Amino acid sequence: MSSTPPQPPQNQSQAKIDSSSSPLKLDTGRSTFASEVPSLVQDEPETSNEWFGPVSPIKFLAKFLPAPPGLPRRPNFQRQRWRNIRSDAKKKFDMCYRFTKLLDRYCTNLELKVTCGASNDINWTHQTGLIKVDVSVFSKNVQLERTFEVAQLETFFEFKRATAFNDDVSEGSPFEKQAKNSQETRAQLATYAGAMLATQFRTHAFCVEVAGDYARLIRFDREGAVFTHAFRYAEETHLIDFLWRFNHSSSEIRGHDPTVTVPSAAESRFVKQATELLPLKSWERVWKFSVYDEGSKKTVVFYGGANPFSVSVSPFGRSTRGFLVIDIHGNIVYLKDTWRIDMEEMQKEGNIYAQLHEKGVPHIPHVVAHGDAGQQKTLSRSSFPDLFKPGEPSHPFQHYYIVFREVGRRLTEFRTTHELVNAIKDAMKAHQVAYDEAKILHCDISSGNILISEDGKSGFLIDWDFSKPVVDCETPREHGITGTWEFMSAELLLGNATCHKRTDDLESFFHVLCWVLLKYGPHSLTVETVIERLGWIYNYVMIYRGRSKGGTHKERSLRSRDMRRAAGLPDGCLKNLLVDFEDLVAVRYDHRPSPKARQQYDELAALANYDEKKLDRHPIWKYDKFLQRLEGWDWIYERFCEATRDSSQLSDARIDREQELAAAYVKDMVTERTEGTRSMVIGSKKRLADDSDSQPTLSKKRRR
């Protein structure tokens, strides 16, 4: 096995399967951040309440970076040289350079580089100069292709004039300082750590904040970031102790995932086969994934790694990634790499699929293997319980793999509108049967969770890990709100709902159809119009005091039946389907008929002998009829069946507007940052539940 810890390639191609709905916070690739770091992608409100501390540096090292067996005696602490380090240092570069020179003797296996003048991009964020670390630490046995590569980063140092945290925590002085520069520093640290986790195979990451004469040690994992007290680095040895231990620690202690390795020479035939069968780019490496399968109680290996699609740059949350891999027999399968919330009430996704298949649910994938990665549970909260109030919710994350037999195309990669509508139809059928027969509610209908089969003839509904069991046809066993922001119902986004209902998922199917059609459908809308409608209806989110709210414009659009016009579709089968679907879901937001109007209608209906042919144009008849249809899905499902029976009616090809939309979007974001917009953040919010004080709780969360 190579001594170099594995990192996935930084340039990442498009995956066959999109689980981009899985990361659960604001989509950091599209959030606004008005900052002196103008390209920063991580919006600080998204990290609020994810910072835990302060803790003693001694306890921090003992817990997270214990002295390895046989640790050599470290070189002496040159206190006087450290005391003089800031003298005549006029620029940040001077401080960075002096630090690297003084710390170099503690890094026999590492290389420290001043990189404050270099940047590295993460191509899926559509922003340049995003990652710009002051001092980078790399393994000496790594060959860098350029000055700075976040995919090879071991740890990093950031230099600031003032710290972003308080050590004297009180009710009126929280640990997270609220000054603008403090918020920017936290956003920057989180973005850099998140970029490490996104471009490498890691369980956690370390970094150091240096502010004037003080430093802090920081450890990130998917649950949060633990900070130490600020200490004087010229008087105390915590900094050099950290680096000396880090230098001599194993790659696993440093944060690298041991379940993903470089294949050995004896496995070269699998590497060759993966290269031939998978859509790997010339620069993409073949990795070996070791998955413990809870069904067979054996470790199953897979080879590949074609393309983690665009993932969240947030260091916190589930960070789901997908890979195309082969098994030892050469079968191409899909491997989902995620961090599940480790709570008794939440079943593992593999077990949920077993229940669904037992009840005969159609149009769902088959599980090849699934299981937890051993000894890979987050430690941020459990390591220092004294930081939290008694009974305060704690939701650790557990690294988890699940491998599927089916490999499909993303819904957004439909070839014709018939494929699009047919895949949504099949996903609706899967949802219906799961709800009626297995008593399971999906709770996260999104464009990323509907796949098209390779032959284009069917669809799959995936990503059941946030589904909920239901006691009966209406009442979820546990109250909670989850979903992918763009596709969540207006009712949920507005905070008016106490629990997630089947009608919320039905509305989400409607939003999926409209969202995909706006981006790729057969219309002649301008790019500016598309971006405006996507942002206003689907991406709108208001963040105030750490709480997120949306849905205002989505509700308004439904109530006015606006999408039939806004989607810009030509007359025909597709538009007729959209109109009927809109009428169905919009009835949730229509005003109830007044008692007087209801009485008048009842009298009219009696005179007409309740003949629907005579009443079907009456607004109250329509209101009652659509409410009735909303309770069961048979009517709208049959409308989808009618639309797809003749494929010639839905023969329009997909229109690829991706590059135009991305270019226009970045331009818009730069303008917004220049104006310093803060009251309203337009971004894409991923998987959330209700925002109870921005704290992750099952009955709600902002599920990450």
TrEMBL record:
InterPro entries to which the protein is assigned, alphabetical: Kinase-like_dom_sf, Pkinase_fungal, Prot_kinase_dom
Chain intervals with Polar residues compositional bias: 15-29
rRNA-binding is among the record's keywords: no
Ranges where the record places region Disordered: 1-29, 676-704
Keyword terms of this UniProt record: Kinase, Transferase
Superkingdom to which the source organism belongs: Eukaryota
MF GO annotations: ATP binding; protein kinase activity
Domain spans labelled Protein kinase: 310-621
PROSITE patterns in the record: PROTEIN_KINASE_DOM (PS50011)
PANTHER family listed in its UniProt record: FUNK1 11, FUNK1 6
The name this protein goes by in its record: Other 1 protein kinase
Organism field: Moniliophthora roreri (strain MCA 2997)
